[in-house]
Write a structure and sequence with these properties.
- The complex is a heterodimer.
- Chain A has one helix and nine strands.
- By secondary structure, chain A is mainly β.
- In chain B, a hairpin with a 2-residue loop joins strand 6 and strand 7.
- Chain B has no helices and eleven strands.
- Classes of the chains: A mainly beta, B mainly beta.
Chain lengths: 141, 132
């Protein structure tokens, strides 16, 4: 097998692509899912949830964490064209959304923080002590 | 579904002839509308910072390209995936002559708004219809 050099971001992209295809059959194999689509990552001591919500004004974005459940709420407003404009294409949707995501382990919800940058929402939720990876010391007998 | 409720649409992956960078590229969703003196393109490019965005007009070809920041994903292992991570790329053929010197681009919250002013000779003119 040939070895191909990939940096860590390329590895992540490839892994995300594989998981997407495993979950949805093909790169374009799903429709009508709940908005917004989210990716959840493991960062060792925390879970990182990312959602692409371009064009949402930060004040229209609401994130809450309760127990292991993250709720995203918001509204995407319409880019209002000037009067008398004629549409050639219209692919971007507008409207409200509410999305509930359940995390796979206990979290320290009161230490969660959210950041919105370039249209991507990132929520970092530290794992509860019980759910954090622990390294055990092996005792020699 | 009520008309105001958002529904997710999958990002469409694009195959590029010879990209200089590896990793997937997706097709940004766009609105395109035409006003009296400009063509306006609005594109969703979440995760693309202004310094990783490129807009090129070559003849009647408009190319929009953006990349996401790898450092946003440092140390992360995917657990659950609903969308792919990658850049955005889309090419358009402009139906009208554009004045390339006065193109305005604005990127805010992951949305690119591109104002392409029509060249003087391509602007809309009102034509008087004479009654016979």
């Amino acid at each position: 097998m040939a070895l191909v050099y990939r940096d860590s971001f390329e590895q992540l992209q490839a892994e995300v692509g594989r998981m997407f295809e495993a979950a949805f059959g093909s790169p374009t194999g799903w429709t009508g899912a709940v908005y917004p689509p989210v990716d959840v990552f493991d960062a060792g001591d925390a879970f990182v949830l990312k959602a692409e919500v371009p064009g949402v004004e930060p004040e229209k974005l609401d994130v809450s964490v309760e127990a292991e459940t993250v709720t995203l709420r918001g509204e995407r407003a319409f880019a209002d064209p000037s009067e008398g404009a004629a549409f050639h294409r219209r692919e971007r949707d507008q409207g409200q959304f509410r999305r509930v995501v359940r995390l796979p382990a206990l979290v320290a919800s009161d230490e969660a923080r959210a950041e919105y940058k370039n249209g991507v929402l990132t929520v970092r939720i530290p794992k509860a002590k019980e759910a954090q990876p622990r390294r055990l010391t092996v005792q020699a007998g | 579904m009520s008309s105001s409720e958002l529904e997710a649409r999958p990002k469409q992956k694009v195959e590029r002839e010879e990209p200089t960078r590896t990793g997937p590229y997706f097709q940004p969703a766009v609105d395109i509308f035409e006003t009296k003196d400009a063509i306006v393109l609005v594109a969703d490019m979440p995760g693309v910072p202004p310094d990783a965005l490129e807009v090129n007009v070559d003849g009647d070809q408009l190319v929009v390209e953006g990349r996401v920041r790898p450092d946003e994903y440092q140390g992360l292992k995917p657990l659950h995936v609903e969308y792919g991570v990658g850049g955005f790329y889309r090419r358009f053929t402009l139906g009208k002559a554009i004045n390339r010197d006065t193109i305005e681009a604005q990127l805010k919250h992951g949305v690119l708004v591109l104002k392409l002013p029509k060249a003087e000779h391509a602007r809309q003119r009102k034509i008087e219809v004479k009654a016979a």
